[in-house]
């Protein structure tokens, strides 16, 4: 059962990943990214990370992809041709192809040496109680720092957005 | 976990490589940005896999922080892309090669 589910999500994630980097229109890329994010959320469930799976759907699929789609709509409406001529020249393509093959070979060689027997975990592993206890106990300081990061991001977004009025 | 951990790690590696290719190959800043998100998610998958492998919740906490930073990063990055588009009428990364506005 788990293996079948993993196979389906892996195929979906790979198709979505290919869609992100190969599609001509940014909207299709955003939909490919959405497919990857939802497939990975199912994988997180399979790996016993319920809270992170929910956060993935809410934050990534719910907020970040919507933000991407908003910006794509905004820029398309402003008259930008986002479509063809999207790739760099043939030299760059060949260079990157070699680089990608090397990187993939290295990474896969590395991961196949990883032990595959998982440690036994309690039934409550990865639930919101489990993660929350760690988050508010051992990781309290980074957690508070994360709120600072969000605040700075918010202020940065407002500060950059304020300049977007009619140019003088 | 009936699926062996290397399967998850291999999926993560392939997704990360796809993201790298997207960052290096595409010209639209929006798609480059989405490829960066793809790489972040690939790393998240391997973090969750190792958290399960070692039976420790620390990896999941780290993924939570990656989610937070990614949210902030997307807001600022997209605002910068819109700003570049306003001043140059393009989102091609090759055209935005000067530091001054």
Written overview of the protein:
By secondary structure, chain A is mostly helical. Chain A has 6 helices and no strands. In chain A, helix 1 (2-22) runs antiparallel to helix 2 (26-46) and helix 2 (26-46) runs antiparallel to helix 3. The termini of chain A are far apart. Chain B is an all-alpha fold and 101 residues long. Chain B contains 3 helices and no strands. Chain B is elongated, with a radius of gyration of 17 Å. Chains A and B meet through helix 1, helix 2, helix 3, helix 4 and helix 5 of A and helix 1, helix 2 and helix 3 of B.
Task: List the topology elements.
The complex is a heterodimer of chains A (168) and B (101).
Chain A: H1 2-22, H2 26-46, H3 50-77, H4 90-111, H5 128-136, H6 140-162
Helix pairs in contact in A: 1-2, 2-3
Chain B: H1 5-25, H2 29-54, H3 58-88
């Amino acid at each position: 059962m788990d293996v079948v589910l993993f196979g389906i999500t892996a195929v979906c994630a790979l198709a979505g990943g290919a869609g992100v980097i190969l599609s001509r229109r940014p909207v299709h890329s955003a939909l490919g990214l959405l497919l990857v994010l939802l497939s990975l959320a199912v994988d997180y469930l399979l790996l016993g990370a319920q809270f992170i799976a929910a956060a993935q759907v809410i934050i990534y699929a719910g907020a970040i992809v919507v933000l991407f789609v908003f910006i794509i709509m905004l820029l398309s409406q402003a008259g930008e041709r986002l479509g063809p001529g999207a790739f760099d020249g043939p030299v760059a393509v060949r260079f990157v192809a070699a680089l990608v093959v090397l990187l993939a070979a290295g990474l896969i060689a590395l991961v196949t040496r990883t032990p595959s027997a998982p440690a036994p975990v309690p039934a409550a592993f990865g639930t919101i109680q489990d993660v929350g206890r760690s988050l508010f106990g051992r990781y309290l300081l980074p957690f508070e720092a994360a709120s600072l990061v969000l605040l700075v991001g918010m202020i940065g977004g407002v500060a950059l957005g304020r300049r977007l009025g009619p140019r003088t | 976990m009936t699926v062996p951990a290397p399967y998850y790690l291999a999926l993560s590696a392939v997704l990360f490589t796809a993201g790298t290719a997207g960052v290096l190959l595409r010209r639209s800043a929006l798609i480059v940005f989405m490829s960066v998100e793809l790489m972040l998610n690939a790393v998240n998958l391997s973090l969750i896999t190792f958290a399960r492998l070692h039976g420790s919740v620390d990896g999941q906490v780290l993924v939570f922080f990656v989610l937070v930073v990614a949210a902030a990063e997307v807001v600022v990055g997209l605002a910068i892309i819109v700003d570049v588009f306003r001043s140059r009428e393009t989102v091609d990364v090759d055209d935005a090669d000067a530091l001054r506005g």
